[in-house]
Design goal:
The protein is of the alpha/beta class. The protein contains 17 helices and 17 strands. Helix 2 links the parallel strand 2 and strand 3.
């Protein structure tokens, strides 16, 4: 790499012009002599991140120096050919490397149990092992470009940065333990927090990774979800991390912009919130429960969240996790205690974390309208079922009003409707 960049960020709250964004990426291309570059970018479940557009622009500026693209799947199912063409249209099919969080991974280091407990101030935890996709450390590439959107996140606080690599391309042991650590620390403390214990632990993991990987160029982007699509990117920062300098220098500022633009602080909590899950994005409760995560700080005690989920036909993205979720459901500590008694907890920590993140602990109720799952499976998982709402979700005509460019709105009887729950965080301090 050459000695850095003459510009390291563009930040315009009114929206970054497309020419400015293209010029920024073009300058990055001229600032490196790397010949075999891998791009790591969010998968189709983060279609709204505009990371696909950025990856396509990178291809136009870097050309044949880009050797591969690795969608940051984590535990998600691999993208279909159609999804790849839609999101990453500039890439040939043979340039995709589909991450498998159970196979093709390599151990790069471990944070001991005592250090994990010190970071979290929680006793009786686990060591945190770091496993990553082996392509990152096998000498295939001389630069990794990580394209990651920063927005409030239930596991890490603010997404992007080190999470994009170590979870998005992480192995099962890393994903299991990291998610469980976060869940025990508490989702309501985590959401929208740029400096969580897990963030600090993952940053340590990047230091370990850089001992055997090429340099990583983090492209940290922030979108304002209330802007028109062409003006939605409001911040992009470039930070090159190496074995000698492993600190992402642009993350903190980008995270502050994400907090400013992606957290909606409303005056009062709501007795009823209705969230709509776009069917082509949300096909499992593993992803669809973002409707619970991102609205839970806004729902009044004894309130109700109604989730309209026409596309959801399963619980987990991974078959093992799907089986666990069907078996134990979303019943908070009751589910976790049952997993302990059955001896399934230690091997399924990520599922346990997801259960805790998705549970209401009887503070409010969740009514899930998912016709492809049906009443029996919805109720068996611990959620409520309303046949009238389920029928409404089954009718494409009645759903047309939810295909909205609006992010959210309050109706004339005081209910909050969230049309795109995965792209922001909503909260209120009082009833």
């Amino acid at each position: 790499m050459k000695d850095g960049f003459s510009i390291s960020k563009i930040s315009k709250l009114a929206g970054i012009e497309s020419d400015d964004l293209s010029g920024f990426l073009s300058e990055l291309a001229t600032s490196t002599s790397a010949k075999r570059i891998a791009i790591v970018a969010p998968d189709y479940s983060r279609l709204a991140s505009q990371s696909g557009m950025i990856a396509n622009l990178l291809m136009s500026h870097f050309g044949d120096r880009i050797a591969a693209i690795l969608p940051a799947l984590g535990t998600h199912v691999a993208m279909s050919d159609e999804e790849k063409r839609e999101m990453f249209s500039s890439f040939a099919s043979n340039q995709f490397i589909d991450h498998d969080f159970q196979n093709g991974i390599r151990h790069i280091g471990t944070i001991p149990k005592g250090e994990v407990e010190e970071a979290t101030q929680i006793k009786d935890l686990y060591e945190l092992p770091f496993f990553v996709n082996s392509h990152l450390v096998d000498g295939s590439f001389d630069l990794i470009i990580s394209v990651g959107q920063l927005l409030p996140h239930e596991v890490i606080g603010i997404s992007g940065g080190s999470k994009n690599i170590l979870v998005g391309l992480g192995g099962r042991p890393t994903i299991e333990v990291s998610h469980y650590i976060s869940a025990l620390w508490g989702i309501e403390k985590t959401l929208g927090n740029p400096d969580t214990p897990l963030r600090r632990l993952l940053n340590r993991g990047v230091e370990m990774l850089l001992q055997s990987s090429p340099a990583i160029l983090f492209l940290n982007t922030v979108l304002n979800p209330n802007h028109p699509a062409e003006k939605r990117i409001v911040h992009i920062g470039a930070s090159l991390v190496t074995k000698e300098q492993p600190f992402d220098t642009t993350f903190a500022e980008a995270a502050a912009v994400a907090v400013e633009t992606n957290i909606f602080n409303l005056k009062t909590k709501f007795d009823e919130v209705i969230a709509y899950l776009e069917p082509k994005i949300y096909r499992s409760t593993w992803i669809g429960n973002k409707a619970i995560y991102r609205s839970r700080l806004l729902i009044a005690d004894n309130g109700k969240l109604r989730i309209m989920a026409p596309g959801i036909d399963r619980f987990g993205e991974d078959p093992t996790i799907d089986t666990i979720l069907r078996r134990y459901g979303y019943r908070g500590l009751e589910s976790i205690e049952e997993m302990k008694r059955d001896g399934t907890l230690d091997g399924n920590l990520a599922a346990a974390a997801h259960i805790l993140h998705s549970s209401t602990f009887d503070r409010f109720t969740v009514e899930y309208a998912a016709p492809k799952l049906g009443r029996r499976e919805v109720e068996a998982s611990g959620f409520l079922y309303d046949p009238e709402l389920d029928q409404q979700v089954s009718s494409q005509e009645s759903l047309s009003e939810y295909d909205s460019d609006l992010l959210f709105e309050v109706d004339d009887i005081g209910r909050l409707h969230i049309y795109h729950p995965g792209v922001a965080l909503w909260k209120a301090e009082s009833k």
